[in-house]
From TrEMBL:
Keyword Nucleotide-binding: yes
Lineage of source species: Bacteria, Bacillati, Bacillota, Erysipelotrichia, Erysipelotrichales
Protein keywords: GTP-binding, Nucleotide-binding, Protein biosynthesis
GO biological process terms, semicolon-separated: ribosome disassembly; translation
Superkingdom as given in the UniProt entry: Bacteria
Originating species: Stecheria intestinalis
Protein name from the UniProt record: GTP-binding protein
Region feature (Disordered): 669-694
GO molecular function: GTP binding; GTPase activity
Amino acid sequence: MQLQRFSFTIEAMSGRITIGILAHVDAGKTTCIEAMLYESGTIRKKGRVDHQDSFLDYDSLERNHGITIYDKEAHFTWKNSDCYVIDTPGHVDFSAEMERSLAVLDAAIVVISAPEGIQPHTETILHALQESHIPILIFFNKMDLPHPEKQKLLAALQKELPGAVDLSSEDAREQLAACSDEMLEAFSEGTEINEEMIRNGVSAGFVSPVCYGSALKQEGISELLDTMDLYLRAPVYPDSFGARVYRISRDKDGHRLVHMKITGGTLKVRDRLKSDEKADQIRIMNGQESVQVKEASAGMVVTVMGPESAEAGTGYGFEPDQREGKMISSISYAIEAPSGTDLNKLFSVCRSMQKDFPELQFVMEGDTIRVPVSGRLQQEVLAHLIAERSGIAVTFGEGRIRYLETIRSDADGAGHFEPLRHYAEVHLHLSPLKRGSGIILESLVSTDEVPAVFQNAILSALASADLSGVLTCSALTDVKISLTAAKGSMKHTEGGDFREASLRALRQALMKADNLLLEPFVSFLLRVPDASLSRALFDLEQRHAVTKTEQLKEGISQVSGKGPLRLLRNYEEEVRSYTHGAGRFSYEASGYEESSDQQTIIQAIGYDAERDTEHPAGSIFCMHGAGVYVPWNEADQHMHLQLKQKSDSEGIHHETMRISEEELNLIMQNESGRNRKPEKNRPQRIEEKARKPKPTVRKPKCIIIDGYNMLFGWDSMKELAHENLMIAREKLIDELYSWQGYTGQKMILVFDGYRQKDSIGSSYDKGTMKVVYTRADETADAWIEREVYEHAAEYDYIVATSDGLIQNSIFAMGAMRMSARQLEEEVISVKKMFLEK
C-alpha cells in the first residue's frame, strides 16, 4: 500500500463511527458504497444502479430514475472501525434530505467524478461540511475513464478545500506542512510527520486525505477504507442518554420509523423518550433489511418505532431540538388539485407530511396551497407521496420566487391589546443580524420586573409565529428581537393576549424601521464555446451577475460567478439556443442577499402593510368601555408603559411596572388554575440557529372544550349534571353542536375517560364537531395539552375551561383561554338571537 510511505507508530483508534457518503449526481456514490460493502464482506454480490439491483436504492422511484432520493443506512466493519454509513441523495433537488444527515455524521466521504471534476453541487456539499465542522475524506471516482491528471484534479479541489492532500504523492510532506503549525514545524526540523499529527489535522478539519480509484471496478476501495480506518477518530460519548433524530420514514406496512443516532448512554426497548412516548421497537437497518435489538448504545444509528411526535431535528435526553436547515428551495409552487377536491383535507394531509419532510413548508394562501420545491424531480416525488397518502393526484403550477425581509438599523415597537376583558402590553427592540443568522429572541428584563410566565408567553408566541415583513409580507429573517418591557392585568389578561400584543409590537417596530428586501442568489457555472463568450458575458452583466472567466480547454471557456436567481433561473434555455446545444449552464443556491431592484419588486408584488388586517401594526385600547383601534403611528402616546430612549452608548431603557406576587397568583389562577407541579423558570433566551422563517399564513381557529368542566361550571347545566350525568352530557353535546353550526369553527369536545374504569378511549364525529373520551389513565387537560402541542402550527387554539387543569405550557404556547362562564354566555347569546328571529 502506498500509504506506508509514512511510519505509523501509533495504532489506529477503534470504535463506532458514523460516515456520510456525499456526492453530486452521477458521481458513482451508490456504486462506491456497494464496493465498500463488498470489500468488507458485508454483501457477497455487488448490485448496480443501472441494473436496478443496488443494495441501498431499493425504492421504486429510486430504481426508476437511477438516483438516490432518500437517506439510507448500512453497517459494516473494517479492521478497527465499526462503521455506520449513511447514503445521501446526490441530486440537487434533494439537498435538504442530504443536509438533515449532517447532524449525525462523525465524518464524510465526498465522492467526485474525475472526468467531470468539481461541480457547483460539490462546492455546496464541501461548504456545508466545513460549516458543520465535519472531517472530510475525498474519493475521486471513475479513474478508469478519461480524466484530467491527478495534479490538476487536486489543484481544482484545493481551491474549495485547501486542506486536501494526496498522501500517496511524492510531495505529501510538503502538502501536509501547509496544513498546520505542528506539521510545518516537523517538516522544517526534518522530523517525522506521524499518523497522530495527520489524525489531529483530519479531526480539526485542517487535513482532508484524497484517494483515487474506480468503484465499478473495485479499484482503490481498500485504500479508501484503510485511510478511513487510520485517520478518522471515533467520538467519545457520555454516559448520560442522548439521541438526535435526523429522518422520518415508513416501512412497507406504513409504520412510522424514527431514524436517530444515539449520542450518549443507552436506549432500551420500552424506555420513555418524551411525555408518554416510548421506544416500542429498535431496529438496526442495513439497506432494506433490518435486525431488531433490545437496546442501542452510544454511537449506533438505529430506527425506533413508537415516538409519534418526533420530527427531523428532535433531540432526546441532553440533545436539544434543532429545527429547519438552510437548503430550502427559494421557489414555491402552487399545488393544483382536481376540481371538487376538499382543499382543507388535502392541506391537512400535506401538513402531516411536513413532520416527515421539514423542508416541505406547506402554506394555504386563500384557496391555494403552496410549497417550496427544488425542481421537477422533487415535484414528481412529492406528487407521488401526496397520492399515496390522500388518493389525490396533484400537479404543480408556475413557480414563484420566495423573498425574505430584514432591517438595516435598530428600531423599537410597542403593542397594546385591550378589547373588553383582555389586557396586554409588550415593548420590543429590534436589531439587525448578519446574513444567515435567522431570528434570535431574547429578554432584557428580569423576572422581578416582568414575571417569568409572562416572558415565556411572549417569547414563545414570537417563536411559534410565522413572522413577516412590511415590504412584501415575505418572511422575516436576520433580526434579533429583544423583550424590553411588558405588562399584564390581574383581572383581564388571557393566554392569547400577549401573543396579540407581541405581534403588534413587532409590526409597529418594522413600520418604523429601515427595511430591506432580500432575494435568493445562486452560484453558477457556464461553459460555452469561445465564439459565444462575449454574448455570455453581456447576458450575465445584464442579469447583475459577478463573473470570473477562465480557459477550460482549447475552444471552450468557463464562466463562474454569482447572481440573483430571479434573473438566472431560466437562462439555461437561452444558453442552449445561442450555443446551438454546445453550452452548459448550472447553478446552486448561495443564500440571500440585498436586492438591487427592491422598489421594482415591491411595486410588482403590490403589498400594502397599512391595509393588512391579518397582520395589524396598530394597537387596541379600551376607551369609553369599548376596544378602539389606534394606528401604529399614533399608538405610542397611548401606551401605558413609557418608552425612554437614552444615548446610543447607554442603550435603550424602558420603565417597567412591577407586579406583586399576589397579583401574579391571581392572574395565574385566572389563566391556568393551580399548577400540579411547580416549574422552574425557563431560560430567558431562545435562539434558533440560522432559522429561515416560513411564509406567513393565517391559521384556522379551533376551540377545545373540557366537557365535564362545562357541565359543572354552567349555571344551566349544574343541577341536571348532579341528577343525571349521562343526560346532562348529551344535552351539552347538543347545545354545543348547535352553537358550532352557527360559528363554523372547528370544535373538539373532550370528556375525562378516567371516570370510567378500564376505558381505552374513543372518539366520534357529530357533524363537523369531534367528541373525545380519553382513556382511563388520562385526564382531559393532559389530552388537551398534547393536542395543542402537536398541532400548534396548524391551528390558533382557544381552550374553554375553568377548572385549573390546563397547564402553563398551553398558556405559553399562545393558546387563548375562554372560561366556562364566557362560553355559556356565547351559547346563550346565539340561542337567543335565533329564538328572536
